[in-house]
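debug: dumping io for the single-chain case to check the tokenizer round-trip. Nothing else runs in this session.
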Amino acid sequence: MRPTRLSLAQDGGTFALPDEGTIAVFRPRWGDDLAALPKERVQIVQGFKPDHDAFAQAGYDAQIAPQGRFAFSIVCIPRAKAEARVLIAQACALTDGVVVVDGQKTDGIDSLYKACRKEADVTAAFSKAHGKTFAFPATDAFADWAASASPQKAEDGFYRRPGVFSADGIDAGSEALANALPKLKGTGVDLGAGWGYLSAQALAQETIKTLHLVEAEAAALDCARLNVTNPRAQFHWADATRFTLPDPVDFVLTNPPFHTERAADPAIGQAFLQAAAHLLTPRGEVWAVANRHLPYEAHLATLFQQVEEVGGTRGFKLLRAVRPMRSRSSR
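debug: decoded output
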């Protein structure tokens, strides 16, 4: 949760809001304190489905990508340095007034502040709650930071872009699971599909009728559409923990996340596995990969009649769970 730093920075004179015009807020998380901003003039730019929907339900104008031009912009920096630079360049290109940048030290705000000071007339940083807020007039000095904004094809043939999970290469866990998959039949779901590596490998099997790629991060799903061109693939921008289909499926593949920001949170992966159980037919199965230290087996045992470790690597374990114990109607 972003602290009240924005409000305090405004009160302290780091920036002043314009009297009119649209205010863009790039990549805020739900729960961030935006009380200093007039809601009716704010456009939230957020491609992460749970946060996007929460802001929309709270009455904000929530968009996946920025729409129009802005009188003022705020960039809430994400963990990925390259993505943060892209967002600042994007905000500058679309803003006629001031751009404010806010972030935590753990997300690299200190180095970003130094980099921005080399390119623009930046205010002194307002420091509070292990983070910083600073501002500068929008400028085209950051234009080259936007070079990687669109998906880029890497040497391995896959498209990726800054900010998506495993942006620098194929995730070792997903690769281990892809290499261990047996012959799969019928309809399946890749829950938390990312940029599509696991789905691309699975769809090499002609026995798969349909594979639904479910991903909450719109930028990752855009890459997946480029990486998985098989007509048997269907794409869903959705929160994996809430995703449903009209009919049950035969199998679920998943490499669930286990972090909230930088803190490990196994409950996220457990929620993925519970969602998987509710998607399956009575004889369906889930194939999952997880870091070895994550305690998923006990949770799976409450959801499935049969749970087993079927392989892995030094760092990852591969789990197979068969025959969910809860019916879809109990969800």
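debug: round-trip ok. The two ends are 29 Å apart (CA to CA).
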